[in-house]
Amino acid sequence: MKKISTLLFLGLISLNLSAQKLTSNKKALIASVEQHKDNLIKISDSIWALAETAFEESKSAEILAKYAEENGMNVTRGVANIPTAFTATYGSGKPVISILGEFDALPGLSQNTVPTKDPRIEGAPGHGCGHNMFGAASLGAAIAIKEQIEAGKIKGTVKFLGTPAEEKYFAKVWMVEAGLWDDVDVNVSWHPGANIEADVQSGLSLIDFIVEFYGQAAHASADPWNGRSASDALELYTTGINYYREHIRPTSRIHYHIQDGGQVVNVVPDYSRIWVRVRDPKRKVMLPTYEQVKKMAEGAAIMANVDYKISLVSGIYETLVNRSGGEIMQKNLELLGPITYTDEEIAYGKSIQEATGKPQVGMDSNINPLRETEELPGGGSTDVGDVSWNVPNINLSVTVAPKDTPWHSWAVVACGGMSIGHKGMVYAAKAMGMTMLDLFENPKLVDKVKEEYKTRKGDEKYEAMIDGPPPIQGQ
Ligand SMILES: [Zn+2]
């Protein structure tokens, strides 16, 4: 009994201490996010249900833009010549602190909010990367900052950037080229995940390109000697790529997706098409590999006696980490403490883990310590990388799904549409808002973050890996 009461007492002290560390501005910011909470959840759920994919997110973008407008922000739609890209700003002068909001879904991942695989609409898209929460949380943070500027508590400009098509085409690269971060001092971003941490890990640089082979059609049996097969070229090309794998760096990856391999068996195909992707944690290592994989297309075309064409889709940089920014975020995570879950939510999480063959331990919402930055991280890639080479970026990961959940899967879609996802989304809005508040209040912190950015970037000149306008249907 004594032990329990001591623990209770200590618990009260620690609660009290963290409450004391919250400045009145931070308390006001948290209150503001709480005030918008129900609307943010509605926004997240609407975008979740729409599940619009790359460059087709017109309704999702409009939901966010409209809420920003209703809350007094100045909205510009269709920036960077992308109909679903927009900015929402408030305030004037320095510092300019920006925040990213994604909202695109992934094909084929439709799912109900149940902890076993159960598509809402068979074959339809779903938010398997949590971007429905991404945009909503970031807008929540931006509006909370706007309210602080409006109340005269802080000075400067807050800029929300609605960034579409992260999953397929990396629209931020065109947005960077359009100069949308040119006036920004520091950018803040987050990603839904299965843990809470100030993210100081990079990702992989990558480049996407399409190879098309053009041959001559003929009857596959009656006069094949009149044919030149585009699918032969395709097979020779992928064979070359697969032999080449032995000679690339262990950190590099080559993926391909055959998009057209001919239509019927009795025609020598005169056309084939393949989407190729090369990745490495370092862009400088990725580029020579990319050149070699491109060269092989010519070899395959010569062998099959066909013509070929290579078109760049887009490429993205690895993320430039900012540990000074990570430290600011870390302090705010520690102030907020872990997310707590109901018994029903824990049971839901365990059911997801059971269905995906993972240990049934529920959600991990402890605040991870700031980790060492890995020199050669594994994992995926993001166009936040390109933003991070143009302006310092502070990134956050917040739990929206149980521990070890397979990402880009139905399980993420399920959690993103119910309370586990909602809690993570609201938490992210608070953590990012508090971090932005620190930057507005302390010019020295902005300087420190910028200084680290300059040092890490060094002499490297940013060159966007795009060639022409974004591949938007109907443009
Ligand atoms: Zn994502």
From TrEMBL:
SUPFAM superfamilies: Bacterial exopeptidase dimerisation domain (SSF55031), Zn-dependent exopeptidases (SSF53187). GO terms for cellular component: cytoplasm. It comes from the Bacteria. The keyword Hydrolase applies. Keywords: Hydrolase, Signal. Residues 206-286 form the Peptidase M20 dimerisation domain. GO terms for biological process: folic acid catabolic process. GO terms for molecular function: dipeptidase activity; para-aminobenzoyl-glutamate hydrolase activity. The keyword Hydrolase applies. Residues 1-19 form the signal peptide. This is Amidohydrolase. It comes from Flagellimonas olearia. The lineage of its organism: Bacteria, Pseudomonadati, Bacteroidota, Flavobacteriia, Flavobacteriales.
